[in-house]
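INTERNAL AUDIT FORM
Audit reference: QA-55
Scope: verify that the stored structure record matches its stored sequence.
Auditor: D.O.
Record contents follow.
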Amino acid sequence: MPRPKDDRGQVLSSLVAVLAVVAIVAGLLVLFGTRGNDSTADEGTNTPSPKPTGGPSTVGASVPRSTPTPTPDPTTAAPSSTEPTTPASSEPTTTVPPATGPPATQTTTIPPDQRPAVEVYNNTGRKGLADSVAGRARQAGWTVAGADNWHGKVAGSTVYYPPGMLAAANQLARDLGVGRTKGALDNMKKDRLTVILTSDYTG
């Protein structure tokens, strides 16, 4: 025989049925509620791509725009970056005149009253050469003690000088245009200068 149901058993059955219905409704709500919201994976396929608007692009705003480089003036020379610029010196520039040659040798001029006597000899075939050169010596301030012909062989026109008269011999040679000086020979006087003129003399 079937077991009689009491009130408690009916109440329990009703609660179980209600809970089952609530669970089913809740499951349906959850199911449909989650499908109504777009998931992250669906955004890439179902969401339409936005259309560009007339306003400025945010991507273009983040990239700096290139400014045109001004073209240098062709008339202005650009400074070279490879060569350092040298600052102008504040010190004055000293101009050195170019050398014109070695300085002339300073010569010592012997006063006429300190000059020794002179004898002039002609060792050429030119007549009157000794007398003409003797006159030139007198004009230059020399005292001429004599003029004559010289017999013998002489290498060239020469002013002969005894010891201690080299400076006087050099000056006399310049005054007469003789290019050679030499110590006096044994047969020459030792208190004066002796001039012997040969064929090379052009003075």
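Auditor finding: record pair retrieved intact. Residues 7-36 form the longest helix (30 residues).
Action required: none
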